[in-house]
């Protein structure tokens, strides 16, 4: 058994013709002779079309539509082959193509086995004439397998015979069909020949004109997994199961699937969520519903079901290629019968066809014949942990397709799930119609080296989709799969991701870990970013786990949205329109609380009504309940939404959005503030206060005059007046209608002005410290040692009340404020508050929302290396799981904050009087950062690098 290190090139599989030797030339000469004898035109240009094509096909191409009797065709093919075989006798070792002999010597010296895999029936003879027969690990030829390239069988056969996992093999091929076969086989590929020959293949990772001057070092370099784009898992550790399921989440903005295994594993959290598919639940009111499981697969090898906790796992490797959005797993597994199989699973949630997912499974018998039964379909028996949300309505299956019709119990959302399976020739496929779990059954007896391939396509159609003309969800789901193939979908999917990254990628040079982590965070935001639906938004855990039940928080507007506003404004627009469509819920909330206007829910789902649970079990003592106050009094969210709208408008210039939706949201939430503030006399002077709130720092509740809240509320009122002015001027009719509809009278505006003039803001003129809320600095000071030594959250250590009474922060609060309004605070204020709050913040175990903003703030303080520590804490929130809760789902706010830390912090991008400027702060080991953004339709490119002398050069084009 070879070492299971996936990053090592373990074997090379060469095609013969055109790679090792040029029998292609003999084919050409033999055809040329026949063609000349028959008076048919034939030259090298026509010959190009024969590459990788069967003998009969070749002849038909040469005949170019001329029709001849079958006997004549046969005679010509026989003659061609006779000429060809005569020519083969001339082959000698001198006919190895340039570079081949040296490369084989290098492979021998390094102990890397290699094989020839050629469809040619003359391969053995040719290899012998070339004098390399004894050096080959394996010779696989046209006799070895039934299905020719582009089926993967020949290469899988060679790998099995070499006893090397397919993922460790490099296929060297000169024909497009061969490269495709290598890709399907789950192998790395090197294409030889001119680029246009492979133009129809979507993703050619490596191409050379020939093997001339190609060394083993080159092969190693081209097969190494790109550590800046690929997340890898080289071994399976059951203890990290849930964490890794979160990490390997794939999604396309319509649905998203955690990285659970196709065949299941005890205790797994196999979840697929689709946007907007909520159903009622106790305590948290509503939750995203775990969708019918599209992975649903059982594989029996000689009657024993394949699972990682059974049989023997000889090799495991998983990777997610962020550039392509493709998840892949390789397992070599031994069944109790002694049969060893290589299994490759590759899947994606199509970024180009958002209702569709695709899964390719390959099972290869390695050491002995074995019986494979593969059952795959749709599992409708899914629950959210133990809560059932689906009623199963109907189902069906035939030879190659299956479908399920289900409906959520309380919200009545209908779901059609369809599946279509194609498979390699030998297997036969039968429908299996267990109630709630329609499946297809493939069975095949495999000889050693033989493969079973199943390509499974699935689709979801929901009644909540905006498809009024196609109310039958099952029929619609089936249409999504019509005329689709795995390879076709894959090509479109990869192309769609390429487009995404072209605009939204961010480059960090000098730090591969930071580079990968940053891309991972952005990737996970895209996995949940609604491309086409304006009635949904990204929840605090994206679509990747049960955490927060799919609810949307301020995380979206303040942390996540800027990335989209700056790079993919159509997605930001959808997410802001979600707030527009939930205004009715926000109005209900305000009214219920006795306020005017609209008050956004702290936790929001479909309708915008408040869905924060009121009570939850205590985190250390589940016999007690804890009252959750955020849904009642964490009110800054309404201004956070306004902030995001204003920012989107500034960056995109989308006046139509502001006119039709944005203004209404900003003005109606401003009305809320106008009624929420309290008019008081403080020290004999008029003051407006906002009492009994929770600010961003949730370790303290029921506080008065939280500075973040008061400041952003005042900004909100000011912005509302400015938007009103703009609307009146640009669209007077619209302004009049809106002011009337929202009852915005002169009195209301005068009141807002008075509030703005008198709203309490606790900045101490002498020290420049902004007190987080009234009396914060009277609370108990903690021993600094406690912050350094804590191995869990300080709220757990001190207790809820203990933290509440102390000067300890869960997350940035005043520091957030400074960042969001950075140019409104002078250096003295920055310094004073940095000194006041950073040492008393629970950086490691407090909120995951803190570190990204702390990184940004540290850049403002010109402390790039300190910023780096905070940045990496945020960037690693899911990949490394420092808080131990990544299994609950992606830390979406942190992911968005990471982008802001880089762009606003390290790059120092800011807009001053209409022009963008940079104030870079690069950590010492970073050589370069670069990213794009869009400003009012124009593409901008930022590139910041160190020159040879270490000086930082920043450009913005
Ligand atoms: C944080 C909030 C955040 C929520 C959802 C809480 O732990 O304190 O700021 O909105 O998680 O991510």
Give Rg in angstroms: 32 Å
The pLDDT mean sits at 96
Helix content: 25-40%
Instruction: List segments where confidence is low: pLDDT < 50 over at least 5 consecutive residues.
Output: none
| Overall SS class | alpha+beta
- Give, in spatial order, the strands making up the sheet with the most strands: 7-15-16-17-18-27-24-23-22
- How far apart lie the N and C ends? 54 Å
**How many DSSP H or I helices?**
29
Small molecules (ligands, ions, cofactors) in the structure: beta-D-glucopyranose
How many strands appear in the DSSP assignment? Answer: 37
Q: Give the overall silhouette.
A: elongated
Percent strand equals 15-25%
Describe the largest sheet.
9 strands, antiparallel
What does this structure look like?
With 957 residues, this protein is of the alpha+beta class. The protein starts with 10 loop residues before the first strand and ends with a strand. Beta-D-glucopyranose is lined by residues 540, 548, 553-555, 696, 698, 810-811, 847, 849, 893.
Keywords:
957 residues, alpha+beta, binds beta-D-glucopyranose, 21% strand, 9-stranded antiparallel sheet
Could you provide a short overview of the structure?
36% of the residues lie in helices and 21% in strands. With 957 residues, it is an alpha+beta fold.
SSE map:
Layout: E1 11-14, H1 23-38, H2 44-48, H3 55-63, H4 70-88, H5 100-110, E2 114-117, H6 123-130, E3 138-140, H7 153-162, E4 169-173, H8 176-184, E5 188-192, E6 207-208, H9 216-223, E7 230-233, H10 241-247, E8 250-251, E9 255-257, E10 272-274, E11 278-281, E12 285-288, E13 297-301, E14 304-305, E15 312-321, E16 326-334, E17 340-349, E18 356-365, E19 370-377, E20 383-384, E21 387-388, E22 390-397, E23 401-408, E24 414-423, E25 428-434, E26 437-446, E27 451-462, H11 473-481, H12 486-504, E28 506-509, H13 512-528, H14 554-567, H15 569-581, H16 583-592, E29 615-617, E30 625-627, H17 630-633, H18 637-652, H19 655-676, E31 678-682, E32 685-689, H20 707-730, H21 732-741, H22 746-758, H23 784-789, H24 794-804, H25 814-820, H26 827-837, H27 850-860, H28 864-875, H29 892-906, E33 910-912, E34 915-917, E35 928-935, E36 938-946, E37 952-956
Parallel strand pairs: 1-2, 1-4, 2-3, 4-5, 5-6
Antiparallel strand pairs: 7-15, 8-9, 9-10, 11-12, 13-14, 13-19, 15-16, 16-17, 17-18, 18-27, 19-26, 20-21, 22-23, 23-24, 24-27, 25-26, 28-35, 29-30, 31-32, 33-34, 35-36, 36-37
Bound molecules: beta-D-glucopyranose.
Beta-D-glucopyranose (BGC) binds next to helix 14.
